[in-house]
Amino acid sequence: MQQKKIVLLICDGMADRPDKNRNNKTPLEVANKPNMDKIARDGICGIMNPIGYGIPPGSDTSHLALLGYDPYKYYTGRGPFEALGVGLNLTKDDIAFRCNFATAEKKNDKLFITDRRAGRGEFGLEKLGVLLNFQIEDVEAIFKASSGHRGVLVLRGKNLSEKISDSDPHSEGEIKNVVPLANTNSSKRTAEILNKFTQKAYEILNNSEIQNERLDKGMLPANIVLARGAGKIGEIPKFSEKYGMKGVGIAGVNLIKGICRAVGLDVVEIDGATGHKDSNIGGKIDACIKELKENKHDFILINIKGTDEISHDGDFKGKVEMIERIDMFIGKLLAQNLNATLALTADHTTSVTVKEHSGDPVPLAILGDVRTDKISKFSERECAKGGLGVIKGTDLLNILMDLSGRGKKFGA
Ligand code: ZN
Ligand code: ZN
User: Which helix (H) or strand (E) element contains residue 265?
Assistant: First the structure.
């Protein structure tokens, strides 16, 4: 059988709940989206619980699941995936944290956080981040500034543990002394190392010339780093070994890039792909078309984040417009007549009324060598009546493999 390439297009948080103020419709039901509807009409539809019935997924856990990795087994906290997302390499024993640059004041030898995000001013943070690469005893601190006021810290050394508390107080006030969360030497040692990192980071950052430049610009000093969500990446089977195909991820946000890298997908960097509502969606679709024409990868994951961001803002109209904009670019993809299996879905429901992720299942439509059904609209309620029925996120890749002539027979 001819093996087809697979495209998995994930519109982040695109699924929704009916809005009482909008004739009880969802944004997908209101939007004019002829190309998504074409996928539904010419393909097979269904509804998917990304993680499980009624479980509100995070984008990270859901993407793991949609790639066929049980998130309960392979998700080890956000830190490691953020670290991979900013392009740091991780060994399986490294401890990774998500960090904020913040503003601290020293009073009576104690550090108090006066702004948890250093006023959100980004000036100089990349250079400051470089200063935070140093040794603490025999442990290497590796730091990289990421987007906004954020950054990633990795502690590399022998006998370290992720079982420690955060240095981030999660509110303004005295900085938290990091404590071990397990009664082990590695846990105690890692807590001490992180406390030392915080003190040394304050000394270095506070005495850096860049703080004066920030002050001259009327900004708050970014003179401390708050760490949270310690985690280890652990051992994750490679996508290429699991499925026998090489894959690539096209995403704007670091977390999704990190998930892709964690399973061994290559990641394409797209100029202007920010993950925000004004992101370069056209650039992502063009990259996908290029990948389909080349022979480097058999599997292409595209994440479009803007639909989620807009849902958290509670902006129904904006979400409808965003869906229509994505649809236009899907039209460009469909116009290529490329011989591939294409799946369109969301990684979770982010309702504009709730402004948060919820456990409602998401619509799914697959275009390719499928048993078509009677569904002609891509929406939550229409897809629920489709030929695929209800599936679980971790089953999606198997279905796509099978439809693409890549399934492996079980038994004789
Ligand atoms: Zn998401
Ligand atoms: Zn979200």
Answer: none
Please give the domain boundaries of the chain with CATH numbers for all domains.
5-76+236-403 (3.40.720.10), 83-231 (no CATH)
| Closest ligand by atom to 60 CA | 1
The angle at the Cα of 380, spanning 379 to 381, to the nearest 5 degrees, equals 95
Ligand nearest to the CA of 347: 1
Q: Which ligand is nearest to the CA of 65?
A: 1
pLDDT by residue (tens digit) across 336-373?
Answer: 987 899 999 999 999 999 999 999 999 999 999 999 99
Q: Burial code of 373-407, b = ≥16 C-beta within 10 A, e = fewer?
A: bebebbbbebbbebbbeebebbebbebbbebbebe
Instruction: Say which ligand is closest to the CA of 12.
Output: 1
Alpha-carbon distance of 224 to 204, in angstroms, equals 9
Percent of the chain scored above 90 by pLDDT? 88
The ligand minimizing its distance to the Cα of 256 is 1
Q: How far is the CA of 301 from the centre of ligand 1 (A)?
A: 14
Neighbours of ion ligand 2 (CB under 5 A): 308
- Give residue 293 CA to ligand 1 midpoint distance, Å: 28
pLDDT tens digits, 7-63: 999 999 999 999 999 999 999 999 999 999 999 999 999 999 999 999 999 999 999
| Two tokens, residue 21 | 């103020």
